[in-house]
Design a protein that fits this description.
Radius of gyration: 23 Å
Distance between the termini: 51 Å
Number of helices: 3
Strand content: 5-15%
Mean pLDDT: 82
Structural class: mainly alpha
Order of helices and strands: HHEEH
Number of strands: 2
Helix content: 55-70%
């Protein structure tokens, strides 16, 4: 599975570089850069380059190989320094053992743990 993923990431990087090269070629070969056609072609190429670059960049981020400015590594996960808690809390579980959504967890922690009914 990792060979296919590596090949797909490599092809995405090649496509990204290809679209960026098309932007440079268009900029040098076009007489006037500020025409509607030239700006349209450059914009489409830029959007396509961003689309193809997103997948390899997200893969590198998930593997922890892409350093992101403003993010600090704590334990095994990356946590943003401003406004987030540095310690990773265990997930809060509902009665069936499923993880609660973040908004429900915030409400429960705000109002305190609800006491269970005893029958």
């Amino acid at each position: 599975m990792s060979k296919e993923l590596g090949l797909l990431n490599f092809l995405c990087i090649l496509a990204t570089i290809g679209f960026l090269v098309m932007i440079v070629i268009t900029a040098f070969t076009a007489g006037d850069i500020l025409t509607t056609d030239t700006l349209f072609i450059m914009t489409v190429c830029l959007v396509m380059a961003v689309m193809f670059a997103a997948s390899p960049l997200l893969y590198l981020k998930s593997e922890g190989k892409l350093p992101i400015p403003g993010m600090k590594r704590v334990g095994g996960s990356t946590v943003s320094t401003p406004g987030q808690i540095a310690a990773v809390a265990p997930p809060m579980l509902d009665a069936k053992g499923r993880a609660m959504p973040a908004d429900v967890k915030a409400i429960v922690t705000k109002f305190g743990q609800a006491e269970s009914k005893e029958a």
